[in-house]
Known about the structure:
The structure holds 2 protein chains of 2 kinds.
Chain A: E1 6-7, E2 10-11, H1 16-56, H2 72-103, H3 107-119, H4 124-140, H5 152-176, H6 180-188, H7 193-204, H8 206-221, H9 225-228, H10 248-256, H11 261-293
Antiparallel strand pairs in A: 1-2
Chain B: H1 2-12, H2 16-48, H3 50-56, H4 59-62, E1 66-67, E2 73-74, H5 77-108, H6 111-126, H7 129-156, H8 171-195, H9 199-207, H10 212-241, H11 244-249, H12 267-274, H13 280-318
Antiparallel strand pairs in B: 1-2
Amino acid sequence: MRFPTHVAGLPLRLDREARRLWKDLAMSIAALLCVVIALIPLGSILVEATARGLQAIGPSFFSLDTAFGGIGNAIQGTLILVALSSLISLPVGILTGIYLSEFGKNPLGASIRFFVDVMTQVPSIVVGIFAYSVILELGQAGIVSTRLVFSAISGTLALSVIMIPFVARTAEEAMRLVSTSTREAGLALGIPRYRVILRIVLPSSASALVTGALLGVARVAGETAPLLMTAFGSGFGFSGLDHPVESLPHTIYTFALSPYTAQNQTAWGASLVLVVMMLLISVFSRLLLRSRYRVGGAAP
Amino acid sequence: MLSLRIVRRIARGLPRSLGDPLFKGLSAVVAIGVVALLGIITLVLAFAAEPSIRRFGPSFLAGGVWNPVPPEVFGAAPFVYGTLVTSALALLIGVPISLGIAIFLSELAPAWLRIPLTYIVELLAAVPSVVYGLWGIFVLDPTMRSVIEPAVQATLGFLPIFQGTPIGSDKFAAGVILAVMVVPTISAVSREALLAVLANQREAALSLGATRWETTRLAVLRYARAGIFGAIILGLGRAVGETMAVTMMIGNRNAISVSLFDQGQTIASWIANNFTEAGPLELSALIELGLVLMLMSLLINVFARLMVRRVLRRGEGAA
Lengths: 300, 319
C-alpha cells in the first residue's frame, strides 16, 4: 500500500512550506470553533426556552394574570410600556436623527453624535435610578404625586431615556442611505429644505426608519433592571398609569427566583414569548432592509 | 409618526423663509436636549446621593461594610471588587472567542457563509439579559457546578482563584455569562475594524505568497489593532453595567474573596437587590453606587469610542 503523501490537498511532509499551509488550515478551524462556541449558548437558550416554555403554555396562559398562573397582565404591561415609550422616543429620536444626518456635518453635530453613542451604552440600571430619583424629587417638591414613583409613567420615563439615543442613531443611519442627489433634486425644484427632509428624505428612508424603530422596541421590551425601581410589577392587570404595572421581563425575573416549580415554568413560558418576539422583530427588520437596500456583505 | 404629521401640517402653513430656520432650530434644540440628558442624569444622581457623599466622603469607595442598622455605615469596596473581577473574567474568556469570530467572519470564512453567520452571531445580542439569567440559573448553573468547575479545579486547582467547593452560582459563573453577553459587542466592532483595513493591504500580502492566515496576522490585524482595542473596551463597558444576568448568577454575598468559586456581588447586582427596600440614607448610598457605575461607564465608553472612531474614520477616509 502506498503511504499517502497528501491529506485534504495539503502535503504531509512537514517542510517549511507545508507547515505554513497546515497552520493556515489550523487557524481557520480555530476561528470557526470560536463561532461554534459562541453559538452554543444561543442554541441552548432557544432549545431550553422552547422545551420548558411549551410545557407552561396552555389555553389560559395568555389570558390569566401572573397572580393566577398566566402572563396576560405581563404581556399587557409590556405592550403599554413599549407603546408609551415609543410615543415619546420616536418623535424625539427621529428629530435628533434628522439633525445629525441633515444639519450635523459640523463640530456640534460631531460631538452630539459622539455623546448620543455614549448614551446608548449607559447602564440601564442607572437610567432606572435616574427615573426613580427624578420622580421622587418632583414628588417631594409637591409637583407630582409621590405615587408615581412606582408606576407605568416612571417606567415609561426610564425606557424612553434608553430608547431615544438608540432611535436617534438608527434614524440618522437610515436617512444617510438616501442619496445626496435625491435631496438636490428636491432643492433644485425650489422646495424649502425642511420640506425636502419631511416629504422626500423621511419617506425614502421609511423602511430603514421602521427597522430602527423596531430594533428600539426590541431593545426596551427586554429591559428589566430599570423597571425594578420604576414600573415595579404587579400580580394583576393594568389599573392606571399612576399604578405599578407588570411586564414580561419582570415576570421572568421574579418567577425565575421563585421556589415553586410552576412559577419557574411560567418564567420559561414568558421567556419563550419574549425571545420569539425578539427573533421575529430581528428577522422581520432584516428582511425589510434587505428588500429595499440589499445590504450585503461588502467582502474585502 | 403621528406627531410628525402634526409637525408637517404646522410647517405647511408657515411662510417660506421661516420654515427652514425654524425646522433646523427645532431639530438642533431636540438633539442638544437629548445629549444634555447625559449631564442631567449625572447631576440628578449626584444630587440624590448627596446625603451619602456628605456623610462618608471618599471612604465610601474603600469601606467594606454595608450596615443599615444605626449607626449606618455603607462602603462600596466589595461591589467595586466584584464588578472588576467579573468584568475582567468576562473579557479573559470573551475576547479570544470574539476575535476568532471577527477574523473568521471578515477574513477566513467562505463568502457565502459570512452574511448568515454574522447575522446569527448578532442574534446573541437580541436575547434579553433576564433570559440569560433564567438560562443561567436552570442550565448553566448545574453545568458549571457538576462539569465545568470541577474540570477547571482538576487542572488549575493549585491557583488561589480556584480554591473551595464549586457551587455553580458564583463569580466564575457570572464571568462566564458576562462573556457570552460581551461576545456580540466585541466581535461586531472588531469585525468592522477588520473590514476597514484596505483591500490592497491584503492583496499586497497575498501577492507575496502569504497564506490567508499570514495575511490576516501581518497585514490586517496589525492595522486594526486600535479598533480591536476599542472594541474590547466597549465590551468592558457592557460587562461593567450589566445587571440582570449577573444578579441571577453571582450568588449575592457581599464579601471580598480571592476564589472565583465564592459568591460575590457587583455594583449593579447590589443595587438591583436592595433598591426598593432601603431606608433613606441607604437609598442615597445605593444611588451613590449608581453614580460610581455611571462615571465608570462614561469613562470607559468615551475612551472606547475615541479609539474606534479614529480607526473607522481612517478606513472611510482612505476608501
